[in-house]
Write a structure and sequence with these properties.
Elements (H helix, E strand, L loop, with lengths): L1 H81 L5 H84 L2 H13 L5 E5 L2 E2 L8 H9 L12 E3 L7
Parallel strand pairs: 1-3
Antiparallel strand pairs: 1-2
Helix pairs in contact: 1-2
The structure holds zinc ion.
């Protein structure tokens, strides 16, 4: 009778520890999901930022091309005007203006070429970012799906274990359960301990030979003289 009660008590404690561990694990899932969500957001932001930069440069380039065209028109008009000029002084002045205009135009052309190179480079980078993001998104989403699946499984385990726990408690002497619960609270979550190698596995203090013999019989509730936990001799354990 006591033997059966002790076995049940040992089972109860094992089960409760499983439940506690599963609860702890369950609490980590929302954080893991949040972290993955953050990774997805960072990826999207990087993509958007690159796209914005390309569009900005494109706008600058178009503006500069407009300016370049106007400058060329101005130079053409000045060249036509050159034919109508009478005095040498005016001629020289306009010629200088035309030269300066041409110089400015060629600077603008170089600037546009630099911009086109930069845009090309950014577009290449962006294409690889998009490709990488696509791959990473897939991995992240798979990870999220796995976590959600695991959440369901853990939840099912917890429900099942609670059910098993109720069954065991139903078979136990209520007084013993009360004693066990109090002991568990006071002894860091462990109320029943195995006895092995003539020692208590809760506090690792040796058990007097007489008591050790009694414990092995599993015929009465015996507590450790040192930590006061309930001692349990697992009959299958070789020791
Ligand atoms: Zn002990």
């Amino acid at each position: 009778m006591v033997r059966e009660q002790l076995q049940l008590l040992w089972k109860l404690q094992t089960l409760e520890r499983h439940i506690e561990e599963a609860q702890k694990e369950k609490e980590t899932y929302p954080l893991m999901l949040e972290r993955l969500e953050g990774m997805l957001k960072t990826l999207e932001e990087k993509k958007e930022e690159e796209k914005r930069r390309i569009e900005e440069l494109e706008r600058e380039r178009i503006k500069l091309e407009g300016e370049l065209e106007m400058e060329s028109e101005r130079t053409k008009r000045s060249q036509l005007k050159l034919l109508e000029i009478k005095t040498n002084k005016e001629y020289q002045a306009l010629l200088k203006e035309i030269e300066m205009g041409k110089e400015h135009t060629s600077q603008q052309e170089e600037e546009i070429i630099r911009m086109l190179d930069e845009i090309d480079r950014l577009k290449t980078d962006h294409a690889s970012t998009v490709e990488r993001a696509h791959k990473e998104r897939k991995e992240i989403e798979e990870g999220q799906a796995k976590i959600r699946e695991q959440m369901v499984i853990v939840e099912q385990h917890i429900t099942q274990w609670h059910h098993n726990r109720e069954e065991i408690v139903g078979k136990l002497d209520p007084e013993l359960v009360k004693r066990y619960t109090t002991l568990k609270e006071r002894r860091n979550g462990i109320a029943v301990v195995l006895v092995r190698n003539e020692g208590c596995q809760g506090c690792y203090v040796n058990i007097p030979p007489q008591l050790y013999n009694e414990v092995q019989k599993n015929k009465e509730i015996i507590v450790c003289p040192n930590c006061h936990r309930i001692l349990y001799w697992e009959e299958t354990s070789a020791s």
